[in-house]
Predict the 3D structure of the following.
Amino acid sequence: MSEKTNPYKVPTTGHVWDDNLAELLNEPPKWWMIGFWASIVMVVVYFVMYPSIPLVNSHFKGIIGWTSIKELKEDMQAIERSRAKYENRLSGMSAAAILADDELTQYVVRSAKVLFGDNCAGCHGTGGAGNPNFPVLVDDDWLYGGKIEDIVTSIANGRRGNMPAHAGTLSEQEIADLAKHVKALSEGGEYAPGKELYSGKGKCFACHGPEGKGMTALGAANLTDGIWRFSPGTEEAIAYTIAHGVNDQKDPKTRNAVMPKFSGKMSETDINKLAVYVYKLGGGQ
């Protein structure tokens, strides 16, 4: 074996690779050995202090009695203690009263995000951005009104819109003309043949108003703002809604639009908190 193969002049195992690389028998550095034995000590200490060794029907629970569930409960108790000063004040307060208190409003906006995610985001989307066929909550368009009292009522009692299907009372051409007029209304114009139907045979004005501005008392949409609940605003999609209506049980092709009520599923305080959260998303009136 050449000096090049073993430049440190230490004993080897006799294993040499490629006549140039030898396996030496020198000891590891002291710092490395100290770390090695310290790690063994740490393992033993861990096994004694924490749950570790499986037994026949259970396991060794450790001398400090730690469990992840116990730690979770302690953390939850700490969170509840920090929230208590706000939650105690919220009990019995109306949503309007909460909005009048800046400190409570800030707390509710942060904490009610979880309520929204658990109960509302599935339909209205994360952050109220909306989903197909479900209203956007971050704009200023409200079918039933955007005042805080209106939002509380919507959450507590639910909403079920109703628009009759016109496929049996209007011809395909009349439905097409009416759709063109509704489309024109959203763009600030009108379509004469459809306008006549809107105010006459179609009886659209009875719910949507003579100018198409809608009626919050009925949940009738504003047709002039360019915001569409069930479609991207194409004439075909508008015609479908006119033909088959909304929640018209007589028409199997009707569009379904039902918001469940949360009264009885949520406490009054949680409903008020959720209403404030929705109000503060940006579209509250």
